[in-house]
Amino acid sequence: MPEFIFTKTALKEFKKIELKRQKIIIKKLNWLSEQTDCLIFAKRLTNYKIGEYRFRIGDYRVIFDIDNEKNLIIIINVGHRREIYR
Q: Are 84 and 61 in contact (CB under 8 A)?
């Protein structure tokens, strides 16, 4: 099972989200990391400059990369779907 870590930028953006939404996002990220193949629930992005995959949590998106060697999900950005891809 991969673990997830936040980059500094992602953590900064995550802290701007209201506490209720933060709890939902963490719960879903924990669920995602427990899956045998978490990429089934993610979509691959076409613009790799912002990240390789995205995971949808309601109106919020989590942009992340996978490090298979260290077995990590690296959270690059978290935000509302209106603002996340800018």
A: yes
DSSP reduced 3-state for 69: coil
Q: In what order do the strands lie in the sheet with 53-57?
A: 3-6, 72-80, 60-67, 53-57, 43-44
Residue 54, SS3 per DSSP: strand
Place of tokens 């942009």: 63
With vertex at residue 8, the alpha carbon angle to CA 14 and CA 51, rounded to the nearest 5 degrees, is: 80
Which residue ranges form the domains of the chain, and what is each CATH number? 3-80 (3.30.2310.20)
Write the pLDDT tens digit of every residue in 13-70: 999 999 999 999 999 999 988 888 888 999 999 988 888 999 999 999 999 999 888 8
Q: How long a stretch of residues is the chain?
A: 86
Q: What is the pTM of this model?
A: 0.89
The answer to whether the beta carbons of residues 66 and 53 sit under 8 Å apart is yes
